Amino acid sequence: MPAASDTHAGPALPTWSLCVATLDRIDILDRCVALAAVQTAPPKEIVIVDASADWLENKARIATTVAGRAALVYLQAPKKSLPAQRNCAITASSGEILFLIDDDALMHRDCAEQILRIYAADRDGKIAALGCSNDPRVPESDPDGDAPEAEAEVRRKQAGGGGLRRGGAESPLMRFVRREIFLMAIDRAFIGYDDPASRAPSGEAPAACFPTAMLSGWSITVRREVALKEPFDGDLLAYAPAEDCDATYRFGRHGAVFACEGARLHHYEAAAGRLKRRRATELAVLNLAFFLRKHSTSLPKHVLTYYVLGLRRVVAEFLKDSLSARFSYPQLRGATVALLRSPLVFLRGPDEVGAWYQDVQMRILQS
Predict the structure, then answer these.
(1) What 3 state SS string does 8-46 have?
(2) pLDDT above 90 for 7
């Protein structure tokens, strides 16, 4: 396939690969791939790593959707693990820039071009990773119009999540509550574990971008050479909450990380394939302890920070469960159990914690 087109004056655009990990979500995966294939800067290749039992049938459907518009690499997942699937896709790819977006991320037509122009202008390679922005509007080229957004709203109401949804513009007070009380911001539920001296400087942000310490999994783009140096954590299993925070935080060791407001995609937030609330919350809290034990450059300080954040998390999950009428309190129970289990993580040595923690995850997932 030809390299990404350069329809405007400026440096030639780098090649890019769409790299997607998926499990039992063929309908939304098909949408994701269809929209990626018709980008104004088309992909060099589309790499899918599928953990579904019927992955061969899925492969045939996606091949029809791609229809020769890009090279297709469709692989069976080595195991049902989002980080392992992402790493498999990274290894199998060949583009200079990797779009490691989720299978429910629907790209607007110029999303890739907006991202690639920023990488192309970065002649010294000081930018390691860029994040797309979430646009509530479904891409115009989506043949089903606004159906995904409408279906997502129905699902939220059926799940009892209406108590935390906001309508219209968000007030400064509500933004504060969501970030500082509910901890519903990516930088409020993660603890940076590196020595500041090991982090690459952000430098001046490109237009319509702002520096960030990490990126959400639905939005990630990264230089392939950086992704190979800092793979997703192979000790994490299944959906692996916060695996995106951990990996993209480590991307920041090799260059600046920015979020880009002009690179738009619609994050559909499909529910199928995700963990149940209690397990997801328990693993999210325990995974953070695991990252600290494995990587922390100042463990006593970070452990103290972890427990302060953990207590705040318990309060936040109680409030979120209550406001969403989940009176079995699954998220509260998950956070509480994880906090009680976390000392066992910190008692393990950094070299042994990985294999031990895989067993812990299996017990949680099978419970």
Answers:
(1) CCCCCCCCEEEEEEECCCHHHHHHHHHHHHCCCCCCCEE
(2) no
* Nearest in space to 148 (alpha carbons), one of 25, 246, 38, 327: 25
Residue 243, CB-side half-sphere exposure with 13 Å CA sphere = 25
User: What phi-psi label fits residue 273: left (phi over 0), alpha (psi between -120 and 50 degrees) or beta?
Assistant: left
Lookup: tokens for 47: 């790499």
Share of the chain above pLDDT 90, in %: 82
Nearest one of 101, 131, 80, 136 to 275, comparing CA atoms = 80
DSSP symbol at 164: G
Question: Which amino acid, 136?
Answer: P
C-alpha to C-alpha distance for 130 and 324, rounded to whole angstroms: 33
Selection from 90, 95, 103 nearest residue 119 by Cα:
95
The alpha carbon of 57 is separated from its chain's Cα centroid by a whole number of angstroms, namely: 26
Domain ranges of the chain: 16-144+193-267, 277-366
Q: Is pLDDT of 1 > 50?
A: no
For 261, the 3-state DSSP assignment is: strand
CA–CA separation, 316 and 319 (whole Å): 5
Q: What are phi and psi of 221, to 5 degrees?
A: -130, 145
Query: Which tokens in the block code for residue 10?
Result: 């400026």
pTM (two decimals): 0.89
What is d(CA 348, CA 344) in angstroms, rounded to the nearest whole number?
7
Q: Quote the crossing angle between the two packed helices 299-323 and 277-295, to the nearest 10°.
A: 170
Distance in angstroms (rounded) separating the CA atoms of residues 209 and 203: 12
Q: Is 133:219 a contact under the CB 8 Å cutoff? A: yes
For residue 36, is it left (φ>0), alpha (ψ between -120 and 50) or beta? alpha
Separation of alpha carbons 15 and 41, rounded Å: 9
Which residue, 233, 247, 244, is CA-closest to 350? 233
Query: What mean pLDDT comes out for the span 77-86?
Result: 95
Q: Which residues pair with 96 in a beta bridge?
A: none
Fold exhibited by the domain 16-144+193-267: Spore Coat Polysaccharide Biosynthesis Protein SpsA; Chain A (3.90.550)
Determine the Cα angle at 12 with ends 6 and 17, to 5°. Answer: 80
